[in-house]
Input
Amino acid sequence: MAHSEGGATWLQNKIVGDTRDDAAGRMLRLGITGTTGSVRYGALYRSAGQAFLNGPDLAVREVWGEWKSGQTTLRSSVGQQWNNVTGDTTRIRLGQTYGRLGLAWKSPGLPEFLLTYSNAGISSSVEPLGTAPQRNHTHTLEGALAYAGTTWNARLTSAYILGNDLQRGGAESTVRVQTLTAAIRPLNTLTITPTLGYREEIQDWSGTRIESPSASVAVQYRHNQRVWISATGNYASTHSNDRLLETQQVGGKGILAWDLQRSQVWATLLSFEAGYTRLTNNLSPAADVKDISGIIKLILAAH
Output
């Protein structure tokens, strides 16, 4: 069990006589794993409130099994996951029941191949007044090819998703997604991570086709143990053949961090952050959004 304290409520919990227990900051995790010959199996449960530091507002319970022989691994799992863990009546809860079956093949010196099939049922609950309910069922077939070199690695993923909207009488939609990611390390202190993506959705019930290409790049440079720089840039657009969607988004963020002082008792970190985002709506220029931000942080942490 774990509990993280932060946000607007951390001081209240320190006041003498305040016995309120904030479940939003609590996490509970349990895992069981067994092995029999070449077969591994297990079960896991994890639940964290929306104020928990890592992986907030998500609960998962799953049973899985894995068989490995040589370079081949076969893994299957069934489970459930949902958000709005604490049942906040002002927010919707989306729950998902899923099953997955995956095959992986990896041999030294050769690319790794992965093939996964999954099906999932998504439904909503704890619906606030005025929120439309959701009920969907999807089948997903995904293939991936990955290769790791000495100073770089790359991964190409292609997925085909067939969805049914049960709120529309089972209306079908088809989604195809291609993603290429890489990590390049020309220096021990420098890492460059580009990503290219393309998503195409076809709504069979309306004939609408939505295309969404995207690209991003992230750069991380660590001059030494005390100074590091990171920067990201991204571009994404959405276009539909019915002319109801026509948007572009461009953004970027840069961070310069300096570890001023580190001792056995204290760590002092100073960072400068700057960000820029522009969303352009070609069909409704009045809906354009531009955001420029700058933040200076001084963090004092006790070990």
Notes: The radius of gyration is 23 Å. The CA atoms of residues 257 and 271 lie 4 Å apart. Confidence is low (pLDDT under 50) at residues 7-20.
